[in-house]
Amino acid sequence: MNSSGNGAGPVTGVTVKNITVRDIGESYAKIEGQEGALITNLTFENVYMPGSTTPATTLQEMNFTDRAYYGGVTILPVQNPEPAPAPRTNLARLHPAVISSNDNAVDSAPLAFDGNLSTRAGTKRAVDPGWLQVDLGSMKTINEVHLYWDTAYGKSYQIQISGNGTDWTLVYTTDGKGGLEKITFNPVQTRYVRMYGTERATQYGYSLREFEVYGP
Ligand SMILES: [Ca+2]
After folding, report:
1. Is residue 42 left, alpha or beta, with left meaning phi > 0 and alpha meaning psi from -120 to 50?
2. Are 120 and 66 within one domain?
3. pLDDT digits over 70-112, tens only?
4. Distance of CA 161 from the midpoint of ligand 1 (Å)
5. Separation CA 75–CA 68 (nearest Å)
6. How far is the CA of 112 from the centre of ligand 1 (A)?
7. CA distance 193 to 143
8. What element of type H or E holds 184?
9. How many angstroms separate the first and last alpha carbons of the chain?
10. What pLDDT score was predicted for residue 165?
11. Rounded distance from Cα 79 to ligand 1 centre (Å)
């Protein structure tokens, strides 16, 4: 209500969030309800005053010099919010790949490195072991591999690395569950990365929709 007795009743549940005050202006701000018409449950979150690099923590700091008939003020400074992590680069994407065998005459190896989940590489059915390797082009530090399995996944397989494409070192061995498997290990230097399947989950081969490689 205003001083003439007109207007709506209590004001409640107001949130002011994520604003930067550019100019103090000519008049100070006020929070002023009236007797019987309080302003309540006010929330100020992440309000930056002119020239400040941190959010305001008090009403005084926000230049609310005139305050009357109010209650329930919450001030939530969200200081230094976490920056979004930079997107990581799939070091294997569009790189040369070799597969141990194919289930038909077409070389399917590149299809696990084309960035497209609707295409897949697959080894010859009913054959163990089956493997798929990629050449990163030069020595890179890696610590994570993402395998997007097709229905024909590896029940047991290894992740192997090699600097020359001939001599392989085991960095991870696991019982596969299919679907998307995110495999992490201590950072290693390598040029070639291989999924080496030792036991198939189905009567088919080892089939990957995408095979991604990441560094730390
Ligand atoms: Ca693909």
Report:
1. beta
2. no
3. 888 989 887 666 778 888 999 999 999 999 999 988 999 999 9
4. 21
5. 17
6. 4
7. 11
8. strand 180-200
9. 61
10. 95
11. 42
On whether both 69 and 154 belong to a single domain, the answer is no
Q: How far is the CA of 136 from the centre of ligand 1 (A)?
A: 17
Q: How far is the CA of 78 from the centre of ligand 1 (A)?
A: 41
The neighbouring-strand residues paired with 199 are 156
Q: How many Å lie between the centroid of ligand 1 and the Cα of residue 12? A: 54
Pairwise CA distance, residues 34 & 154, whole Å: 71
Could you tell me the residue range of the domain that residue 198 belongs to? 97-214
**Tokens at residue 193, please?**
């990365």
CB 120 within 8 A of CB 147: no
In a shared domain, residues 200 and 147:
yes
Ligand 1 midpoint to CA 60 (Å):
58
All residue ranges of the chain with pLDDT < 70 are 1-8, 22-27, 79-81
- Distance from Cα 10 to the centre of ligand 1, integer Å: 60
Query: Into how many domains does the chain fold?
Result: 2
Q: Phi-psi category of 92—alpha, beta or left, where left has phi over 0 and alpha has psi -120 to 50? A: alpha
Domain harbouring 192, CATH code: 2.60.120.260
**Residue 137 DSSP SS3:** strand
